[in-house]
Task: structure prediction
Amino acid sequence: MKNIVQKSLAVMAAAGTLAAMPVHAAENGKFRVGVVTFLSGAAAGPFGVPSINGAKVLVDALNEGKVPAPYNVKGINGLEIEAVVIDENGGATKQVEEFRNLAERHKVDAVVGYISSGDCLAISPVAEELGVPTVFFDCGTSRLFEENNKPRYVFRTGLDAAIDNIGAARYLIDTGHKVDSIAGIQQNYSWGQDSWGDFTAAMKQLKPGVKIATEQFPKIFQGQYGAEISALAISNPDVIHSSFWGGDMEALVLQGNARGLLDKRTTILTCGESALDRFKGQATNGLIVGARGPFGAFAPKNTLSDWFHAAYVAKNEMEPTYPAYKMVQAILGLKAAAEKAAAGKPGTVPNKDALVGAFKGLTFESVSGTVNMSRANGHQALQGIAYGEYHFDKKTKKASLQNVKAYAGECVTPPDGTTATEWIKAGFPGAKCGG
Result:
């Protein structure tokens, strides 16, 4: 698949800075971008394939000038977009080597990618060292801008996991679910550990006295969860929470459902929307799912999202899930910033300082609505999040979401200068959650 994608995909964008910053001519008449996502391994099917398919749909349309305004200028600032596509499978050490190749051998103008929290934590300092504008489209660890607290070249157009888990806790409380006891099953690395920490802390604030029935931390991509499912069942919690993603998440649902685990308890999956059409009715109706923001089935209706949904379905003959939307969001942000930085000089590439200067604090329109790069000193997107209940219609063979509830970014996001842990512990001071 990797070779097929490399031959057929032309991708994406860099981000520029203030109007006065310098630009230069593209060395080959194209805007070259490294695009990194899972093309093999357990994460490819549910995450990597939708994201690379989303990139191809968007980039082909951008290069043909067929994307709705404000993105109707061809390519990036009039330059054809060229992609160098890299498989994220293989671990953080391999990804650092691949990143250096993108910068030094392929001489990309920017890099967009990374699903794994472990990978983005490894890449971030290298991007700063090499001065390569880098946009994380999915990677969710809260540690990204805690460890890199003075970012220059690194941006994230997706949300961090704290928002997922604060939103999950609020949804459970606001929809009246019984939450006297909770249990968790998370992948045993930074993503799973931080997700569970944020969720349990938020639940303790919103439901004082809540008890933790059990905590299960199998290794990532373990695949078989018989022992963990038994432990969850024996602990008999009111709620099961999981930040599992990719093949792990789908395996947990199928194995848990087969053993009656999920139909007796409220279960909430922060990444569950990615398998909305892959469950094929094998998940329990009432399963609560999220999409790590206003993506996929939770995307608002607007000109861009309507266009993208139709274009994706026409090209791929399936519904786009949230990884596709998040990749597209990163590309659109890069295009908006690059053209801002180019200062009305078509056919030029803004230099790297111009690129990151324009991206910092940028507000741009996306398939998910308006995106404000207003956290982490202008390097982190601020958006809301939504959750809903999975329902499968056996007659139509279609899945849908019911009882959807959305939360504004200001309700679930710590203010700048405060970590998620500190903000939750303090009781969410300044949160704006409406009536």
In short: The chain has two domains: 10-159+299-382, 162-291+394-425. DSSP finds 14 helices and 17 strands in the chain. Residues 44-63 form the longest helix (20 residues).
